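Q: Could you fold this chain for me?
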Amino acid sequence: MSNIPFVETDVDSSVEEVKQHSRNLIPWLPDPHTCDCGTFCEAKTEYVESQAIYMDVWLCPSCGKRYFRDEER
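A: Sure. Below is the predicted structure, expressed as structure tokens.
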């Protein structure tokens, strides 16, 4: 038998563990917004016609929905 350590197979706990480690490594990096469709959004800077300026937004790569990054979640 090999001396390979037991690997946790619970996906939910593994994902949370990775999130916690990444927060410790890069504390200034914001958590990505989760779209209503369940996909993580990408941080972009886009022109917003209603404001007539370029703004920081979260953009869903799946459905194209846009959220403003300066809003409280």
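A (continued): Residues 31-73 form one domain.
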